[in-house]
Amino acid sequence: MTPSERFDRQMRFAPLGKxxxxxxxxxxxxxxxxxxxxxxxxxxxxxxxxxxxxxxxRDVVETSNLPRQVLFDERHAVEGTPKALAAVESLERIGxxxxxxxxxxxxxxxxxxxxxxxADLLLDGTDNLETRYLLNDFAVERGVPWIYAGxxxxxxxxxxxxxxxxxxxxxxxxxxxxxxxxxxxxxxxxILPAVLLVASLAAGxxxxxxAKGPSxxxxxxxxxxxxxxxxxxxPAPRDPDCRVCAQGRFESLHRPAPRDPLVLCGRNAVQIPAxxxxxxxxxxxxxxxxxxxxxxxxxxxxxxxxxxxxxxxxRDGRILVxxxxxxxxxxxxxxxxxxx
Length: 340
Prior knowledge:
Elements: H1 3-6, H2 8-11, H3 17-25, E1 28-32, H4 36-48, E2 52-57, H5 74-79, H6 83-92, E3 99-104, H7 112-115, E4 121-124, H8 129-142, E5 146-152, E6 155-161, H9 169-172, H10 185-188, H11 192-212, E7 220-225, E8 230-235, H12 251-254, E9 262-264, E10 269-272, H13 281-288, E11 293-297, E12 301-306, E13 309-314, E14 319-322, H14 327-337
Parallel strand pairs: 1-2, 1-4, 2-3, 4-5
Antiparallel strand pairs: 5-6, 6-7, 7-8, 9-10, 10-14, 11-12, 12-13, 13-14
Helix pairs in contact: 3-11, 4-11
Protein backbone atom coordinates (compact mmCIF):
# COMPACT_ATOMS: atom_id res chain seq x y z
CA MET A 1 0.00 0.00 0.00
CA THR A 2 1.42 3.39 -0.98
CA PRO A 3 1.31 6.37 1.42
CA SER A 4 -1.22 8.08 -0.85
CA GLU A 5 -3.51 5.06 -0.60
CA ARG A 6 -3.08 4.67 3.15
CA PHE A 7 -3.82 8.32 3.95
CA ASP A 8 -6.25 9.04 1.11
CA ARG A 9 -9.26 9.85 3.32
CA GLN A 10 -7.13 11.94 5.63
CA MET A 11 -5.70 14.00 2.77
CA ARG A 12 -9.21 14.59 1.41
CA PHE A 13 -9.82 16.69 4.52
CA ALA A 14 -9.21 20.12 2.99
CA PRO A 15 -7.52 21.86 5.98
CA LEU A 16 -4.90 19.08 6.00
CA GLY A 17 -4.47 18.12 2.34
CA LYS A 18 -1.43 16.56 0.69
CA UNK A 19 1.00 19.23 1.89
CA UNK A 20 -0.16 18.88 5.48
CA UNK A 21 0.25 15.11 5.27
CA UNK A 22 3.78 15.52 4.00
CA UNK A 23 4.57 17.79 6.96
CA UNK A 24 3.16 15.18 9.35
CA UNK A 25 5.39 12.52 7.83
CA UNK A 26 8.43 14.75 8.31
CA UNK A 27 7.65 15.66 11.93
CA UNK A 28 9.28 14.46 15.15
CA UNK A 29 7.16 14.36 18.33
CA UNK A 30 8.18 13.71 21.93
CA UNK A 31 5.37 12.08 23.95
CA UNK A 32 5.94 11.80 27.69
CA UNK A 33 3.78 9.11 29.29
CA UNK A 34 2.30 6.08 27.54
CA UNK A 35 -0.64 5.40 29.85
CA UNK A 36 -4.22 6.57 29.46
CA UNK A 37 -3.83 9.90 27.65
CA UNK A 38 -0.45 8.99 26.21
CA UNK A 39 -1.69 5.73 24.71
CA UNK A 40 -4.63 7.37 22.97
CA UNK A 41 -2.40 10.17 21.70
CA UNK A 42 0.24 7.75 20.43
CA UNK A 43 -2.31 5.64 18.60
CA UNK A 44 -3.76 8.69 16.86
CA UNK A 45 -0.37 10.02 15.78
CA UNK A 46 0.79 6.65 14.44
CA UNK A 47 -2.46 6.14 12.50
CA UNK A 48 -2.10 9.69 11.14
CA UNK A 49 1.41 8.93 9.85
CA UNK A 50 3.61 11.17 12.00
CA UNK A 51 7.25 10.63 10.99
CA UNK A 52 8.97 10.00 14.33
CA UNK A 53 7.42 9.39 17.73
CA UNK A 54 9.66 9.34 20.81
CA UNK A 55 7.92 7.56 23.70
CA UNK A 56 9.11 8.07 27.29
CA UNK A 57 7.60 6.33 30.31
CA ARG A 58 9.06 5.27 33.65
CA ASP A 59 6.33 2.82 34.68
CA VAL A 60 5.23 -0.78 34.12
CA VAL A 61 1.80 -2.08 33.13
CA GLU A 62 -0.50 -3.31 35.90
CA THR A 63 -4.02 -4.74 35.87
CA SER A 64 -5.70 -1.53 37.07
CA ASN A 65 -4.45 0.21 33.89
CA LEU A 66 -6.46 -1.97 31.52
CA PRO A 67 -9.90 -0.27 31.71
CA ARG A 68 -8.52 3.01 30.34
CA GLN A 69 -5.04 2.49 28.83
CA VAL A 70 -5.75 1.40 25.28
CA LEU A 71 -2.32 0.11 24.21
CA PHE A 72 -2.03 -2.60 26.86
CA ASP A 73 -3.52 -6.06 27.33
CA GLU A 74 -3.67 -8.57 30.17
CA ARG A 75 -0.38 -10.22 29.20
CA HIS A 76 1.42 -6.90 29.57
CA ALA A 77 -0.05 -6.54 33.06
CA VAL A 78 0.78 -10.09 34.15
CA GLU A 79 4.35 -9.73 32.93
CA GLY A 80 4.74 -6.18 34.25
CA THR A 81 6.03 -4.99 30.88
CA PRO A 82 7.49 -1.46 30.85
CA LYS A 83 4.84 0.78 29.33
CA ALA A 84 7.11 2.28 26.69
CA LEU A 85 7.94 -1.19 25.35
CA ALA A 86 4.36 -2.47 25.56
CA ALA A 87 3.20 0.65 23.71
CA VAL A 88 5.66 0.10 20.87
CA GLU A 89 4.63 -3.56 20.61
CA SER A 90 1.00 -2.51 20.11
CA LEU A 91 1.76 0.45 17.85
CA GLU A 92 3.97 -1.60 15.54
CA ARG A 93 0.98 -3.79 14.69
CA ILE A 94 -0.71 -0.73 13.17
CA GLY A 95 2.02 -0.45 10.56
CA UNK A 96 2.61 2.72 8.57
CA UNK A 97 5.60 5.01 8.19
CA UNK A 98 6.04 6.13 11.81
CA UNK A 99 9.44 5.45 13.36
CA UNK A 100 9.04 4.57 17.03
CA UNK A 101 11.73 5.33 19.62
CA UNK A 102 10.91 4.00 23.12
CA UNK A 103 12.71 5.02 26.32
CA UNK A 104 12.07 3.31 29.65
CA UNK A 105 13.14 6.26 31.75
CA UNK A 106 12.18 8.94 34.21
CA UNK A 107 12.09 12.24 32.34
CA UNK A 108 14.26 14.81 34.08
CA UNK A 109 16.31 17.91 33.36
CA UNK A 110 19.33 15.77 32.44
CA UNK A 111 17.77 13.66 29.68
CA UNK A 112 15.09 16.02 28.36
CA UNK A 113 17.53 18.03 26.16
CA UNK A 114 18.60 14.76 24.50
CA UNK A 115 15.13 13.21 24.18
CA UNK A 116 13.63 16.50 23.01
CA UNK A 117 16.36 17.25 20.47
CA UNK A 118 14.83 18.10 17.11
CA ALA A 119 11.25 17.71 18.33
CA ASP A 120 8.63 19.76 16.51
CA LEU A 121 6.09 19.25 19.29
CA LEU A 122 5.98 17.99 22.89
CA LEU A 123 2.93 16.10 24.13
CA ASP A 124 1.78 15.57 27.71
CA GLY A 125 0.65 12.06 28.53
CA THR A 126 2.06 12.18 32.04
CA ASP A 127 0.25 12.25 35.36
CA ASN A 128 2.33 14.57 37.52
CA LEU A 129 2.75 18.33 37.64
CA GLU A 130 6.50 18.29 38.27
CA THR A 131 7.11 16.74 34.85
CA ARG A 132 4.66 19.15 33.23
CA TYR A 133 6.47 22.20 34.62
CA LEU A 134 9.72 20.70 33.33
CA LEU A 135 8.21 20.30 29.85
CA ASN A 136 6.86 23.84 30.06
CA ASP A 137 10.26 25.32 30.93
CA PHE A 138 11.98 23.39 28.15
CA ALA A 139 9.36 24.27 25.54
CA VAL A 140 9.33 27.98 26.37
CA GLU A 141 13.13 28.22 26.51
CA ARG A 142 13.52 26.43 23.15
CA GLY A 143 10.47 27.98 21.48
CA VAL A 144 8.89 24.58 20.83
CA PRO A 145 5.08 24.20 21.08
CA TRP A 146 3.69 21.70 23.56
CA ILE A 147 0.21 20.58 24.59
CA TYR A 148 -0.77 20.22 28.24
CA ALA A 149 -3.51 17.66 28.85
CA GLY A 150 -4.94 16.35 32.09
CA UNK A 151 -7.93 14.28 33.12
CA UNK A 152 -9.46 13.11 36.38
CA UNK A 153 -12.93 11.71 37.02
CA UNK A 154 -14.99 12.76 34.01
CA UNK A 155 -13.31 16.15 33.57
CA UNK A 156 -10.23 17.34 31.75
CA UNK A 157 -8.20 20.29 30.53
CA UNK A 158 -6.25 20.89 27.33
CA UNK A 159 -3.94 23.84 26.72
CA UNK A 160 -1.80 24.37 23.62
CA UNK A 161 1.29 26.23 24.81
CA UNK A 162 2.59 28.31 21.92
CA UNK A 163 5.71 30.19 23.07
CA UNK A 164 5.46 33.96 22.67
CA UNK A 165 1.87 33.70 21.41
CA UNK A 166 -0.22 32.65 24.41
CA UNK A 167 -0.17 31.54 28.00
CA UNK A 168 2.30 28.94 29.21
CA UNK A 169 1.42 26.53 32.01
CA UNK A 170 2.98 28.82 34.64
CA UNK A 171 0.85 31.75 33.43
CA UNK A 172 -2.32 29.90 34.42
CA UNK A 173 -1.00 27.84 37.33
CA UNK A 174 1.99 29.60 38.89
CA UNK A 175 3.17 26.58 40.84
CA UNK A 176 2.09 23.07 41.75
CA UNK A 177 -0.25 22.93 44.76
CA UNK A 178 0.75 20.87 47.81
CA UNK A 179 0.06 17.13 47.61
CA UNK A 180 -3.51 16.23 48.50
CA UNK A 181 -5.05 19.55 47.47
CA UNK A 182 -6.17 18.51 43.98
CA UNK A 183 -8.19 15.37 43.20
CA UNK A 184 -6.29 12.59 41.45
CA UNK A 185 -7.29 9.46 39.54
CA UNK A 186 -6.72 7.55 42.77
CA UNK A 187 -9.01 9.75 44.88
CA UNK A 188 -11.65 10.69 42.28
CA UNK A 189 -11.26 7.85 39.77
CA UNK A 190 -11.29 8.28 36.01
CA ILE A 191 -13.43 7.01 33.13
CA LEU A 192 -12.26 6.13 29.65
CA PRO A 193 -14.68 8.47 27.78
CA ALA A 194 -13.08 11.44 29.55
CA VAL A 195 -9.61 10.16 28.65
CA LEU A 196 -10.54 9.70 25.01
CA LEU A 197 -12.25 13.09 24.76
CA VAL A 198 -9.25 14.94 26.20
CA ALA A 199 -6.87 12.90 24.06
CA SER A 200 -8.92 13.62 20.94
CA LEU A 201 -8.86 17.37 21.54
CA ALA A 202 -5.10 17.29 22.23
CA ALA A 203 -4.43 15.08 19.20
CA GLY A 204 -6.49 17.33 16.93
CA UNK A 205 -4.44 20.33 18.04
CA UNK A 206 -1.25 18.32 17.59
CA UNK A 207 -2.06 17.40 13.99
CA UNK A 208 -3.03 21.00 13.24
CA UNK A 209 0.18 22.40 14.71
CA UNK A 210 2.34 19.86 12.86
CA ALA A 211 0.54 20.22 9.54
CA LYS A 212 -0.10 23.98 9.49
CA GLY A 213 2.25 25.47 12.10
CA PRO A 214 1.64 26.95 15.59
CA SER A 215 0.36 30.22 14.11
CA UNK A 216 -2.71 28.35 12.82
CA UNK A 217 -3.89 27.65 16.39
CA UNK A 218 -5.51 30.21 18.67
CA UNK A 219 -4.31 29.82 22.29
CA UNK A 220 -7.16 28.83 24.59
CA UNK A 221 -7.83 26.59 27.59
CA UNK A 222 -10.32 23.83 26.79
CA UNK A 223 -12.34 22.42 29.67
CA UNK A 224 -14.39 19.25 29.14
CA UNK A 225 -16.91 17.23 31.13
CA UNK A 226 -17.54 13.83 29.54
CA UNK A 227 -20.32 12.95 32.01
CA UNK A 228 -22.27 16.14 31.45
CA UNK A 229 -21.32 16.37 27.76
CA UNK A 230 -19.96 19.91 28.10
CA UNK A 231 -16.99 21.67 26.50
CA UNK A 232 -15.92 25.20 27.41
CA UNK A 233 -13.33 27.33 25.63
CA UNK A 234 -11.65 29.86 27.92
CA PRO A 235 -9.25 32.68 26.94
CA ALA A 236 -5.60 31.98 27.82
CA PRO A 237 -3.71 35.30 27.70
CA ARG A 238 -0.08 35.55 28.74
CA ASP A 239 0.71 36.74 32.25
CA PRO A 240 3.02 39.76 31.81
CA ASP A 241 4.68 38.85 35.12
CA CYS A 242 4.98 35.11 34.47
CA ARG A 243 8.19 33.74 36.00
CA VAL A 244 8.75 31.50 32.97
CA CYS A 245 7.68 33.14 29.71
CA ALA A 246 8.01 36.75 30.89
CA GLN A 247 10.97 36.62 33.29
CA GLY A 248 12.82 33.67 31.77
CA ARG A 249 13.25 31.84 35.08
CA PHE A 250 13.44 28.18 34.04
CA GLU A 251 13.66 26.75 37.54
CA SER A 252 12.59 23.20 36.64
CA LEU A 253 15.42 22.91 34.11
CA HIS A 254 18.04 23.75 36.73
CA ARG A 255 16.58 22.00 39.78
CA PRO A 256 18.72 19.08 41.03
CA ALA A 257 17.32 15.63 40.31
CA PRO A 258 15.31 14.29 43.29
CA ARG A 259 17.19 11.88 45.53
CA ASP A 260 14.38 10.86 47.88
CA PRO A 261 12.14 7.84 47.22
CA LEU A 262 8.84 8.71 45.56
CA VAL A 263 5.61 7.08 46.75
CA LEU A 264 3.50 6.33 43.66
CA CYS A 265 -0.03 7.40 44.47
CA GLY A 266 -2.49 4.52 44.65
CA ARG A 267 0.08 1.96 43.52
CA ASN A 268 1.36 0.49 46.82
CA ALA A 269 4.76 1.09 45.28
CA VAL A 270 7.79 3.31 45.78
CA GLN A 271 10.25 4.52 43.14
CA ILE A 272 13.86 5.03 44.20
CA PRO A 273 15.82 7.44 41.96
CA ALA A 274 18.87 6.26 40.06
CA UNK A 275 22.23 6.39 41.79
CA UNK A 276 25.27 7.95 40.16
CA UNK A 277 26.42 4.55 38.86
CA UNK A 278 23.63 2.37 37.41
CA UNK A 279 24.05 -1.36 38.21
CA UNK A 280 25.11 -4.03 35.75
CA UNK A 281 21.88 -5.98 35.46
CA UNK A 282 23.37 -9.26 34.24
CA UNK A 283 25.93 -9.36 37.06
CA UNK A 284 23.28 -8.42 39.62
CA UNK A 285 21.01 -11.22 38.32
CA UNK A 286 23.73 -13.82 38.91
CA UNK A 287 24.29 -12.49 42.43
CA UNK A 288 20.57 -12.63 43.28
CA UNK A 289 19.86 -16.02 41.70
CA UNK A 290 20.35 -18.11 44.90
CA UNK A 291 17.97 -15.94 46.98
CA UNK A 292 15.38 -14.29 44.72
CA UNK A 293 12.18 -15.71 43.28
CA UNK A 294 10.65 -15.07 39.85
CA UNK A 295 13.96 -13.65 38.63
CA UNK A 296 13.70 -12.10 35.17
CA UNK A 297 16.47 -10.20 33.35
CA UNK A 298 15.89 -8.43 30.05
CA UNK A 299 17.77 -5.79 28.09
CA UNK A 300 15.85 -3.01 29.86
CA UNK A 301 15.18 -4.26 33.40
CA UNK A 302 15.83 -6.85 36.09
CA UNK A 303 12.85 -8.01 38.17
CA UNK A 304 12.63 -10.32 41.15
CA UNK A 305 10.45 -11.07 44.18
CA UNK A 306 11.83 -11.21 47.71
CA UNK A 307 10.61 -10.62 51.28
CA UNK A 308 7.02 -10.18 50.08
CA UNK A 309 7.85 -7.41 47.60
CA UNK A 310 8.64 -7.22 43.90
CA UNK A 311 11.62 -5.13 42.84
CA UNK A 312 12.30 -3.90 39.31
CA UNK A 313 15.71 -2.43 38.54
CA UNK A 314 15.76 -0.44 35.30
CA ARG A 315 18.76 -0.04 33.05
CA ASP A 316 18.98 3.66 34.00
CA GLY A 317 19.36 2.71 37.66
CA ARG A 318 15.86 3.48 38.93
CA ILE A 319 14.32 0.92 41.28
CA LEU A 320 10.59 0.25 41.58
CA VAL A 321 9.59 -1.48 44.82
CA UNK A 322 6.06 -2.92 44.72
CA UNK A 323 4.24 -4.22 47.77
CA UNK A 324 4.88 -1.30 50.10
CA UNK A 325 4.16 2.42 50.28
CA UNK A 326 6.73 2.97 53.05
CA UNK A 327 9.80 4.77 51.61
CA UNK A 328 11.99 3.52 54.46
CA UNK A 329 11.12 -0.12 53.84
CA UNK A 330 11.56 0.34 50.09
CA UNK A 331 14.98 1.91 50.59
CA UNK A 332 15.97 -0.83 53.03
CA UNK A 333 15.00 -3.58 50.56
CA UNK A 334 16.90 -1.85 47.76
CA UNK A 335 19.97 -1.33 49.92
CA UNK A 336 19.91 -4.92 51.17
CA UNK A 337 19.46 -6.69 47.85
CA UNK A 338 20.77 -4.24 45.26
CA UNK A 339 23.14 -2.05 47.18
CA UNK A 340 21.49 1.18 45.99
